[in-house]
């Protein structure tokens, strides 16, 4: 262990315990609010695979969850309007009916369909959006429906050649709208050639996207599908376009019996813009009508209930400036659509919606959504009169809320607890505001509790835990304690910088400050983005590190989100400045308090966290050893080789016009200052932060005789997806820290 041996020191958590973890996502409440569908992700060590499954559980927790799918990598559960059926996206072997009888036979499957061993895309992007068309022999994601009243196996509804990316139920439950790629004969021939190793040809400016590879010219259209007959009709003017379309999708949303909303970018240079406009199209076809006018990046869409002054609500950000908070908008739709007014309901809040947050109507005048608020993920009421109100504040004080849903008075949410993992919870909307966790508040511990306390999470039983996905892990291992800490940083206009830290369960800050216990080794983990933030949440790597004696500090540095636009813009176009000040100030603050040993300070970070590591090791000597992961260190040479040219131009300009700006933001230009041992990690197929960037940093350190090691995962994107690589990464990271820890009895040269 890295800390001094004590009788109370916890046993290190085995890195292979990653395979014991279960994650949860994709919540969907039934229309009556009585059942919750959700998706779990489990790890198969023997197959080195991730498996996603769909489950259903009563919202009152009266019965154990029921698994609907196993090995089909299912996702995106969606209830029919009457709640009798559940549709999912799944890459299974074809439905027996379709394989034998085409689309004419509507008899039930009789349970004969079997799940394929396809694990889908590692980073959550389905094959339907893959620029190379994916493997033609592998099953593609299709829409399948379960009849939860009659039972039996799932019934396949779509059979799209390139798979289905998104879908939505029609309001009567008889039709679906799906988004799917539809190649022409020439495009199909080209894709077949590429699969066989032929040349990649493109004239697209947005020529690649992380996780999807080299893009092609195949268009994604909307199709209206009859659920029973499986007949489909393409809506020829409802198609996707633009640089962000491969990432954002079309978000097809049925807003009435006859009208469908979707997203696209049809401006003059769609591949050179982050805008996504809101469009409407008749479900019978015809010309689509644009509602927004290129000034927004529209996201989630939610039709308003009968009686509302609004026709629909949507989330939208600024395509030119990611520091502008993503806001909730309402559109009344009363007049000629092209001239209708839409307005922000949250402009005065100065807080951003969380990434991928849903919008749900509580009544005709109020929505609920998730907002990033001072390093918390909080639910908010948002009124069509622009009033905003925190909802159930204490639920989010010591845990994060990565997903939620609302239907008919019931709220379902995923809570990610720093010591206990992830589970699904439910409560009533009326009860949510009354929940009171006595341990909440600044400086409160997010420590481990027994199973009974977890079941009645808020202490009064109003917040019900309806799953027990990870109960064995905290019972078998010493999981970390998570606390908040604030400190001053020179130049910050805020009074203090906030941070989250994870520590071993035997670490007591007051004892460390008084000298009654020894200081600990520190790991600084820097969040990516930088438009992001750290909130208390379950992170397996933090549990691993804390069990080995480390304190893990996660600074919410200037440039991140959840503190408003001005806070975020302090770093905009000025990389390598205020975030370095805030991170080093956090290290100094913990050293001054006696919590950590100044000679045993380590650090890692992914994406922008890796970029920030580059600045730290070229501008400071704050770290004993560092692990920059999947970062960019030379903005000039990265431009055009990654998938972020739109954002880079909006923030920094063009490298041939703004040479000094790009040089100032490139840590490689100061590589001569590096004397910190570096473990540099990269993904061979990372198009967000190309692996050549990591090679440059690695070679720059080695040229100067600085200890350095390069680890490259050949097929990985801007993540570490395969479980064996995730465990390999943690072994490499902990070994690197131990190798250069002066407290270790032995050290490799």
What does this structure look like?
There is one protein chain. The chain is α+β, with helices and mostly antiparallel strands. It has a domain at 476-739: Rossmann fold (3-Layer(aba) Sandwich), CATH 3.40.50.1820. The chain has an eight-stranded mixed sheet, with helices on both faces. The longest helix has 17 residues, at 723-739. Residues 1-6, 99-130 and 437-444 have low confidence and may be disordered.
Class of secondary structure makeup: alpha+beta
Major sheet strand order: 32-33-35-34-36-37-38-39
- Main CATH class of the domain at 476-739: Alpha Beta
Can you tell me the residue ranges where pLDDT is under 50 for at least 5 consecutive residues?
1-6, 99-130, 437-444
CATH-level-2 architecture of the domain at 476-739: 3-Layer(aba) Sandwich
Oligomer: single chain
For the secondary structure, the number of strands is 39
Q: Give me the CATH fold name of the domain at 476-739.
A: Rossmann fold
Strand portion, in percent? 25-35%
Tally of helical segments: 16
**What is the arithmetic mean of pLDDT?**
89
Alpha carbon gap, first and last residue: 19 Å
Shape: globular
